[in-house]
Backbone:
């Protein structure tokens, strides 16, 4: 591959020096060289702000979602090429799929969530309108808009595809350009990923930049509008967080760092139970997938003291079946670590752990390998330890490889305390069918974990496992784990946006947010709004219909017809004794049905379907002989970019003869973009 190129300021950059060699983790042969010499980091950041940011902010959330989906589909077509290159990092095909398919899956997930959960607009409206005055002329609304900077993303070596994509997706969806800097050991795989993305031409120019090599003076140039996201060691995270520019400008900094994750076996999970087998299988899998080089891998395996020997024997039996070697060779289940340097780092950590315990399985200095040289390649045997849980080493030292330590406990209170001694973790799991034990541990350990998996016979078949971050869920943890959060669905998008409270009149908020706010002007005309296509409909278009008087016969018929004979609708004496009603009242759903009958325009037209009601509240009881009027107002218009129709949210306000609101809710309809 030669010298890896950076992609900055809209062009490929090749350093004017030989660079640092990168080696095949299996064979030791040189794969590529890497250097960022000559990269204008200040210029790259300015290019992202000046070119990438404006291009992204012109797009709506739905348009960005569509581009993410197109990119995911494009990358999926190139998986085989990426798998082959991933093997050079020491990854088996299964490991490569975990990384590559997982990263592509994040793109698909954010594309879907953006389309379903975000508006087809450039402004995100958060929460309800806040009334600030009695008369309703002064109100407020929280909105979120994209930061005007660049999301600087510094990634670890262990996931060269998933790592950058899981950071890029929420930033892109938010409308913020990214600058990706991968760890050098496996940067050749990220470099090819970026080449595929750039060659596709799918993304707006400036929305993605890539640096191969060191960060140079990159962080010297970050501003208050930029963000920095880091994955790696806790010590490096601490140094980056303390960078003068980050402190001076209060730059948003997110870290995902070292994590001594734990898995806890419940006392009920005796040998022969489904949960016992699940625990052992999960433990050994987390030790060997990606050769244990996962920030979410199980490092501390807590087991009831009386089951320690049983778990040790069962786990050793499974580990003995794990074939180590060339990840492309048939039958190999665990490949090499990412580099010889990484293997030596794991061995150093193992020596510290052995001060507190002993080896149950494996030899850190010797391993039989298939179709490879055990010394030229960065191979290491899976190593299972057991240790005194009161010693500090198991709770402080992470061997970032195929290593885990069995730690006995004697009570629920003790295992909760031991779990907390990790100082903050990305992920933990509890394997037990005892719901009381699970509840106590979850509530006791949650403050120290970003994610907790409860594994039992009920969810085992569909569980994604201890070590699998999901784009819908937060990925991060407190304390030692970095104190940050990534992904988490739309939470990850909002991390890249500024939340602003906007105060003003209802008309002003309607103009700013693109959503009609109660108190803003309505537009009534001779044309019923249901006769208007999306192209013709405007926010604030309204119809007032009614009145319709509620008769006793209506209430009686509705009760008989629906079977809803609740006493407040059918028993005068009981209804009169009800302190809320003081007599017979109409069914709430009768009120909603009457309202629909009042505002509907029944002839065929652009309205295709009513597909729901939201935020329904019954505010004032409706009694016999009350006269109902409904005001329906177009509140939000959301065209679907891939369909010939869109969604319209209508504000429905049903009032009685005194002008009191008896029901408020949103009506959701699907409306054609053009007249049929």
Residues:
């Amino acid at each position: 591959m030669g010298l890896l190129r950076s992609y900055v300021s809209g062009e490929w950059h090749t350093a004017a020096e030989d660079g640092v060699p990168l080696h095949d983790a299996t064979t030791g042969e040189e794969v590529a060289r890497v250097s960022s010499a000559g990269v204008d980091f200040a210029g790259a950041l300015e290019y992202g702000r000046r070119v990438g940011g404006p291009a992204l902010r012109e797009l709506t959330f739905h348009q960005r979602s569509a581009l993410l989906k197109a990119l995911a589909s494009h990358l999926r077509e190139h998986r085989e090429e990426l798998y082959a290159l991933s093997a050079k990092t020491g990854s088996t095909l299964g490991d490569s799929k975990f990384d590559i398919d997982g990263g592509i899956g994040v793109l698909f997930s954010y594309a879907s969530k953006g389309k379903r959960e975000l508006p087809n607009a450039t402004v995100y409206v958060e929460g309800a309108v806040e009334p600030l005055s009695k008369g309703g002329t002064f109100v407020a609304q929280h909105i979120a808009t994209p930061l005007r900077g660049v999301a600087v993303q510094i990634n670890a070596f262990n996931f060269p595809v998933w790592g950058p994509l899981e950071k890029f997706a929420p930033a892109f969806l938010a409308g913020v350009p990214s600058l990706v800097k991968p760890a050098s050991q496996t940067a050749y795989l990220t470099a090819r990923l970026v080449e595929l993305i750039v060659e596709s031409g799918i993304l707006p120019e400036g929305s993605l930049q890539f640096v191969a090599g060191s960060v140079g003076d990159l962080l010297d140039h970050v501003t208050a509008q930029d963000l920095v996201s880091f994955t790696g060691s806790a010590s490096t995270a601490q140094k980056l967080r303390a960078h003068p520019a980050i402190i001076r400008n209060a730059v948003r900094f997110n870290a995902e760092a070292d994590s001594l994750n734990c898995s806890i076996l419940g006392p009920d999970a005796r040998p022969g139970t489904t949960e016992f087998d699940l625990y052992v299988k999960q433990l050994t899998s987390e030790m060997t997938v990606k050769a244990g080089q996962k920030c979410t891998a199980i490092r501390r395996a807590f087991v009831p003291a009386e089951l320690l020997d049983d778990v040790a024997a069962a786990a050793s039996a499974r580990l003995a079946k794990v074939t180590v070697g060339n990840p492309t060779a048939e039958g190999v289940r665990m490949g090499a670590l990412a580099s010889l340097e990484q293997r030596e780092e794991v061995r150093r950590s193992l020596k510290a752990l052995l001060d507190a315990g002993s080896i149950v399985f494996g030899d850190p200095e010797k391993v039989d390998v298939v179709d490879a040289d055990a010394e030229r390649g960065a191979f290491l045997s899976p190593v299972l330890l057991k240790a005194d849980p009161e010693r500090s080493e198991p709770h402080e030292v992470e061997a970032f490889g195929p290593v885990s330590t069995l730690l006995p406990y004697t009570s629920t209170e003790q295992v909760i305390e031991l779990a907390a001694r990790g100082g903050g973790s990305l992920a933990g799991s509890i394997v037990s069918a005892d719901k009381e034990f699970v509840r106590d541990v979850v509530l006791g350990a949650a403050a120290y974990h970003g994610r907790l998996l409860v594994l039992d016979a009920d969810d085992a078949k569909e569980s994604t496992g201890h070590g699998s971050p999901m784009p819908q869920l937060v990925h991060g943890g407190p304390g030692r784990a970095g104190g940050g959060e990534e992904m988490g669905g739309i939470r990850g998008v909002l991390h890249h946006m500024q939340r602003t409270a906007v105060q003003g009149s209802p008309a002003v908020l309607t103009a700013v947010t693109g959503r009609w706010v109660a108190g803003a002007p309505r537009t009534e005309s001779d044309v019923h709004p249901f006769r208007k296509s999306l192209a013709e409909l405007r926010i604030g278009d309204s119809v007032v219909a009614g009145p319709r008087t509620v008769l006793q016969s209506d209430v009686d018929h509705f009760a008989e017809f629906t079977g809803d004979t609740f006493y407040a609708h059918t028993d005068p004496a009981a209804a009169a004794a009800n302190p809320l009603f003081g007599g017979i009242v109409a069914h709430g759903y009768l009120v909603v049905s009457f309202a629909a009958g009042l505002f509907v325009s029944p002839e065929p037209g652009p309205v295709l379907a009513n597909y729901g009601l939201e935020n329904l509240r019954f505010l004032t009881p409706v009694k016999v002989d009350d006269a109902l009027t409904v005001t329906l107002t177009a509140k939000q218009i959301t065209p679907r970019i891939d369909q010939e129709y869109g969604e319209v949210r209508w504000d429905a306000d049903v009032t009685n003869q005194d002008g009191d609101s008896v029901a408020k809710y949103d009506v959701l309809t699907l409306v054609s973009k053009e007249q049929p």
